[in-house]
Amino acid sequence: MFRTPGRTATRLSAMVIAGGLAAAGVIGFAGAASAEGAKGVYKGGDVGANIYLKGKADSQRASILKLEVDGKILRTYCIDFHTLVRDEAKYDESGWKETSFGTKADKAKVKWVLLNSFPTVDLAGVRKAVSAPELTEGEAAAATQAAIWHFTDGQNLDDGNNKNDGDVVKLYKYLVGDANKGDVTEPPVSLSVTPGEKAGKINDKPGIGPFEVKTNAEGKSINAKLLAGDTDAKATLVDADGKPVAKVGNGDKLYVDASKATKAGSQSLEVSGESTVQAGRVFQGVNKDGSTSQLLIVADKQKVQTSDKAIAKWGNPGKGPLPEINATKDCVDGGVKVTVKNSGDESYKFKLDGKETTVQPGKSVDQVVKVAEDQAYKITILGPDGKTAKEFTGTLDCKTAGATEGVTGGTSGGSTGGTPAPVNPKGPDLAATGSDSSNTPAILGGAGALLLAGGGLVFYMRRRNNGSNGAAA
Predict the structure, then answer these.
(1) CA distances from 196 to 119, 206, 210, 233 (A)
(2) DSSP string across 15-71
(3) What are the C-alpha distances in Å from 73 to residues 64, 68, 131, 181, 412?
(4) Phi-psi region for residue 318, left (φ > 0), alpha (ψ -120 to 50) or beta?
(5) pTM of the model
(6) pLDDT tens, 158-198?
(7) How far apart are CA 109 and CA 117, in angstroms?
(8) Given Cys at both, which of 236, 258, 296, 371 links 76, Cβ 3.0 to 4.6 Å?
(9) Integer Cα distance of 126 and 120 in angstroms
């Protein structure tokens, strides 16, 4: 997040620990709420140019940003102007509704920009569309990034006093003008299997499930298999007809047939293969210290190898409760929605966020755990015996930094929109801003902790004040 010289930024990192659920004979495991699709690492800026935005005295570097996925480079743009981008930050492919981008009124117009400008459209095509034969790749990227910031963060290119190159202004006006009719359709995920967990009885037919495969890979090209599980389970992966399956495609349903198992247990399944990350897919970043890295949106498409996993749990008929636990980020309610379903024969008690709940057989219960914006969280679910059954980790990103903190002015943060400036030597994991302001000193702040009583939430808050080239995180 950008601050003018002499002013520092604050980034809050938090961990949320809540109460929860466990059942005899059922294995708990950690997972991410709503994690899906490809994973990547931020690798710095690509082609771009310096531009001037209205109300900003200094120029702003605006460019394509590189995300390495499966050893290949995805070209992306920033959709979170006020948040720092972190060197080597890890990124997860996310659905629109799981991030702040899903709350944007103009997200359809952003997708139209991506599909009708550089690099999805080659430079020759962009030049022809706006009658700008001398437009360069860097200028096309800068104008495209500026148009995206217009819709996602309310930033506007300064088109007066000849501050910006005429071709950049021409492309920008085309992208934000009447030609932009919007495209509200969210591109499909590269590859996922949902839900993350299912539970059932050992003799369920065709098995424990269904688990649905979502992918944009063509045909039955995705591999599906069971991973190591209970040694005596002898479970098999089958389709809706109970037939063994090893290759699947989009929309296919998978089941884990545990009928030959001799006791309650669990087994994970994995889907993997080559799929395509398409323009308009969003990637959410998390830094090593748990703080967020700016939201990125894919600007072209790339075939990558990716995978996803889920777990099947089973118990014997008449032998008690059978919980299945899943979680999704809920930007409407400002937290993580945990869903506990009981597929067993007896009622099931669990404790979450200081609250004890009973789930009757065949019923499910939803509970939202409140999480502060831009906070890394860990939600731990305990059972009646007090043991941990499952944990969910992630970062809540439902609003832009400017919306939540009232920031005026700034950069896309870090190297956002552009080629990274020198990295702060005292914080090797922090990328410097793409802004041309370069006189703000680096300041490292202190740390603190706060226990919130009554809600069962423990927040570990760490406060860092950094500055580098006019940016801080």
Answers:
(1) 35, 19, 11, 20
(2) ---------TT----EEETT--S-EEEEEEEEEEEEE-BTT-SS-EEEEEEEEEETT
(3) 11, 5, 30, 29, 20
(4) left
(5) 0.74
(6) 988 789 999 999 999 999 999 999 988 999 999 999 999 99
(7) 12
(8) 296
(9) 10
Mean pLDDT score, 248-273: 94
Say how far apart CA 411 and CA 421 lie, in whole Å: 13
Q: What is the pLDDT of residue 468?
A: 29
Helix then strand then coil, % of the chain, to nearest 5: 10, 35, 50
The rounded distance, in Å, linking the Cα atoms of 437 and 425 is 18
Query: Alpha carbon 459 to chain centroid distance?
Result: 22
pLDDT tens digits along 438-456 = 222 222 232 232 222 233 3
Contact 365, 298 (CB under 8 A): no
pLDDT at 373 (0 to 100)? 77
6 CB-contact burial (10 Å; exposed 0-12 / middle 13-18 / buried 19+) = exposed
- Cα angle 79, 85, 87 (rounded to 5 degrees) comes to 145
Sign of CA dihedral 437, 443, 444, 450: negative
Rounded Cα gap, residues 215 and 251, in angstroms: 8
pLDDT of residue 118: 98
Determine contact, residues 120/151, Cβ cutoff 8 Å: no
User: Does position 109 have pLDDT exceeding 50, yes or no?
Assistant: yes
User: What is the full DSSP assignment across 329-365?
Assistant: EETTTTEEEEEEEE-SSS-EEEEETTEEEEE-TT-EE
- Can you give the pLDDT at residue 36? 66
- What would the pLDDT profile of 277-305 be if each residue is shown by its tens digit? 999 999 998 776 767 789 999 999 999 99
Judge whether 374 and 401 are in contact, CB under 8 Å: yes
What distances in angstroms separate CA 431 from CA 45, 343, 375, 424, 470, one per listed residue?
11, 48, 19, 7, 12
Q: What are the residues whose beta carbons fall under 8 Å from the beta carbon of 277, sequence distance 6 or more?
A: 37, 38, 69, 74, 93, 190, 298, 301, 302, 304
Q: Which helix (H) or strand (E) holds 148?
A: helix 137-153
Side chain identity, residue 123:
L
pLDDT at 3 over 60: no
